[in-house]
C-alpha cells in the first residue's frame, strides 16, 4: 500500500511539474493585448520555508506585472506610467488594478527550498484596466478628444438656410441609411493593419483620411467596454473570426487600413468608413465592440 501511495504521489508531482514548466511570462505588449491578460512567473531565493518562499515568489511576480502594466500604451506614445506621473489618482487606480491579479499556479522545491508562483492580471472585467483606469483618464483629460465624428456624405442634406450659408446639416434621423450597392449584412468588423506597425493600446481609434473619428472607446456601451475592452487583437484571421463569433458575430466585414496616426489610430478610406457606418446602423457593431484588429 505504501508503495502504491508513493507511486501515486510521484505521478501527481510529475504532472504538477509539467504544468509548472508550461508557465510562461506574457509580458510583450502585443501578446498581452492578444491574450487579454498579463502573466508573470516569480521565483524566490533558495533556502526558505515553503510559506516564505511562496510569498516571496508572488511578490516578485506582481512586481513584474506592475512594470508591464505601467508600460502599456494608452494612446499614441503615452503609457500608463506617463499617466501615473501626471496624476496621483491614476497612480492609485493603476495600483488598484494590480489587486485584481490572481494566481495561476505555485510550486515549491523542497530540495533547494525555493518557490515559483504564476500570477495573471486580466485587462478586462470588473476592477480591471478599462473599469478603473479608463474613466480616470477621461476625467483627467488624458484621452484624445473625440473631435469631428464621421458622417457619410450621402447622409448630409442641405436646407435653404444652410445652402445660403454654404453649410450642411445632418438629418434628425438616419435610421434608413442609403443603399451603397451592397445589401449584404455584416455584424462584426476585422480591420487589417498587417501592412503597418500598429500598436495595440487602451485607446485605439478608427479614423478617416481627414481624421474624422469613426470608432473609439467612448462609442462603446460602458458594460461592454468593461467586459471586452475596445475590441480584440490577433495575428491570425481564423482567430479573429473565432473571437468575433464568441461575441455574437457570424458575418464580419473585413476592411484594410490605409495607414496610421500616432501608431494607435487606424486610417480607413472614406468609402470604407461609409460601409462601416451603414453596417453599424444595422447591427450596432461599434457600440458592442465587435471589432478585431488583425496584426502583422
Would you mind describing this structure in some detail?
- By secondary structure, this protein is of the alpha/beta class.
- 39% of the residues lie in helices and 20% in strands.
- The protein folds into two domains: 22-139; 153-168 and 185-294, no CATH class.
- α4 (80-86) crosses α5 (88-98).
- The termini are far apart.
Short description:
By secondary structure, the chain is α/β, with parallel strands linked by helices.
Q: What features would you highlight for this structure?
A:
296 residues; alpha/beta; 2 domains; 4-stranded parallel sheet; 4-stranded mixed sheet; 10 helices; 13 strands; 39% helix; elongated
Distance between the termini: 57 Å
Approximate helicity band: 25-40%
Shape assignment: elongated
Task: Report the biggest beta sheet as strand number plus sense, adding barrel if it closes.
Answer: 4 strands, parallel
Major β-sheet strand ordering:
9-13-6-10
**Overall strand count:** 13
Number of domains: 2
H/E element order: HHEHEEHHEEHHEEEHEHEEEHE
Q: What is the rounded Rg?
A: 24 Å
Q: SS-based structural class?
A: alpha/beta
| SS field, number of helical segments | 10
Low-confidence stretches: 7-21, 156-181
Average pLDDT for all residues = 84
* Percent range for β-strand residues: 15-25%
Amino acid at each position: 500500500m505504501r508503495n502504491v501511495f508513493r507511486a501515486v504521489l510521484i505521478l501527481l508531482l510529475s504532472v504538477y511539474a509539467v504544468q509548472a514548466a508550461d508557465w510562461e511570462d506574457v509580458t510583450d505588449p502585443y501578446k498581452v493585448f492578444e491574450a487579454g491578460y498579463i502573466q508573470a512567473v516569480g521565483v524566490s531565493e533558495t533556502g526558505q520555508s515553503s510559506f516564505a518562499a511562496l510569498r516571496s515568489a508572488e511578490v516578485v511576480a506582481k512586481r513584474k506585472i506592475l512594470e508591464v502594466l505601467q508600460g502599456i500604451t494608452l494612446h499614441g506614445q503615452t503609457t500608463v506610467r506617463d499617466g501615473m506621473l501626471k496624476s496621483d489618482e491614476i497612480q492609485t487606480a493603476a495600483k488598484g488594478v494590480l489587486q485584481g491579479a490572481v494566481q495561476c499556479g505555485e510550486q515549491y522545491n523542497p530540495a533547494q527550498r525555493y518557490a515559483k508562483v504564476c500570477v495573471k492580471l486580466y485587462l478586462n472585467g470588473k476592477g480591471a484596466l478599462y473599469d478603473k483606469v479608463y474613466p480616470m483618464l477621461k476625467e483627467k483629460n488624458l484621452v484624445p478628444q473625440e473631435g469631428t465624428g464621421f458622417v457619410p456624405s450621402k447622409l448630409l442634406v442641405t436646407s435653404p438656410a444652410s445652402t445660403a450659408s454654404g453649410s450642411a446639416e445632418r438629418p434628425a434621423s438616419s435610421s434608413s441609411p442609403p443603399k451603397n450597392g451592397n445589401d449584404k449584412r455584416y455584424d462584426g468588423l476585422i480591420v487589417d493593419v498587417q501592412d503597418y506597425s500598429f500598436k495595440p493600446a487602451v485607446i485605439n481609434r478608427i479614423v478617416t483620411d481627414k481624421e474624422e473619428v469613426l470608432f473609439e472607446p467612448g462609442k462603446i456601451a460602458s458594460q461592454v467596454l468593461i467586459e471586452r475592452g475596445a475590441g480584440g487583437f490577433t495575428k491570425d484571421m481564423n482567430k479573429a473570426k473565432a473571437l468575433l463569433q464568441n461575441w455574437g458575430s457570424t458575418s464580419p466585414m473585413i476592411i484594410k487600413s490605409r495607414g496610421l496616426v500616432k501608431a494607435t489610430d487606424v486610417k480607413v478610406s472614406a468609402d470604407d468608413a461609409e460601409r462601416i457606418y451603414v453596417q453599424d446602423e444595422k447591427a450596432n457593431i461599434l457600440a458592442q465592440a465587435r471589432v478585431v484588429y488583425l496584426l502583422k
